[in-house]
Amino acid sequence: MADISKYPFIRHFRGAPTDHVVHLYRGMVAHSGTGQSFWFRPLSAALSLVPADDRELPLLFHARTSDFQDVTVQSTVTYRFEDPAEVAGRIDFAIDPDTGTWRTNPLDQVAHLLTELAQQYALDLLASMTLDAALAGGVTAVRAAVTEGLESDTRLAQTGISVIGVRVVAIRPEPELERALQTPTREQVQQKADKATYERRALAVERERAISENELQSQIELATRTEQLVTQQGANERRRVTEAAAAERIAVEAKAVADRLRAAARAETVRVVGAAEAETDTAKMAVYAEVDPKVLLALALRDLGRQLRTIGTLNLSPDLLSTALAQLTAPKAAGNGAGTDGS
Question: What is the CATH number of the domain that holds 152?
Answer without folding.
Answer: 3.30.479.30
